[in-house]
């Protein structure tokens, strides 16, 4: 199939496929006139790239993954990506907790909600009274500004 047909099949612009080719992600055959011709393997590669991008992987990582069949290498590539994703999921869960707390709060003023107050207290940490001592009676820690 032509580059236009492949792009249309996946809802992509043709320049995206050209870019992926320039990065070594796609390797279309050329016909006698030099035009790109894509086959079933290319359909699979494009689908793989799209699924990988939806998983949050960048094109360089996708290229590295497609260049290896070694399980150990694949694990070395994917382990840091899994850690980044776990971190993003944790941050999203905290965001959802804040939003749901606001939705479920019966107070007119959200600053009066116990959930809001807990989240703020966790973020602020121990309060430092005006006279320069933390709630535990110790002077505040030296700051490295």
Structural features, described:
The protein has about 140 residues and is mainly alpha-helical. The chain has two domains: about 5-65, Multidrug-efflux Transporter Regulator, Chain: A, Domain 2 (Orthogonal Bundle), CATH 1.10.1660.10; about 85-125. It is about 60% helix and about 5% strand. It is built from six helices and two strands. It has helices at about 5-10, 15-20, 40-55, 60-65, 70-105, 115-125, and strands at about 30, 35. Strands 1-2 form a two-stranded antiparallel ribbon. β1 (about 30) and β2 form a beta hairpin. The radius of gyration is 26 Å and the shape is elongated. The model has no long low-confidence stretch (mean pLDDT about 90).
Residue windows where pLDDT falls under 50 for at least 5 positions: none
- CATH topology name of the largest domain: Multidrug-efflux Transporter Regulator, Chain: A, Domain 2
Strand order of the largest sheet: 1-2
Number of domains: 2
DSSP E strands, number? 2
- Note the overall shape: elongated
CATH class of the largest domain: Mainly Alpha
> Which architecture of the largest domain does the CATH hierarchy give at level 2?
Orthogonal Bundle
């Amino acid at each position: 199939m032509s580059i236009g047909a492949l792009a249309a099949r996946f809802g992509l612009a043709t320049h995206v496929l050209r870019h992926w080719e320039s990065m070594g992600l796609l390797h279309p055959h050329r016909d006698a006139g030099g035009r790109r011709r894509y086959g079933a393997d290319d359909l699979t590669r494009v689908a793989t790239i799209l699924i990988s991008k939806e998983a949050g992987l960048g094109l360089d990582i996708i290229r590295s993954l497609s260049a290896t069949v070694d399980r150990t290498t694949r694990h070395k590539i994917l382990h840091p990506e899994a850690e980044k994703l776990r971190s993003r999921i944790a941050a999203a869960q905290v965001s959802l907790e804040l939003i749901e707390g606001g939705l479920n709060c019966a107070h007119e003023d959200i600053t009066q909600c116990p959930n809001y107050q807990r989240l703020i207290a966790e973020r602020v940490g121990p309060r430092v009274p005006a006279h320069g001592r933390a709630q535990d009676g110790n002077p505040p820690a030296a700051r490295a500004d």
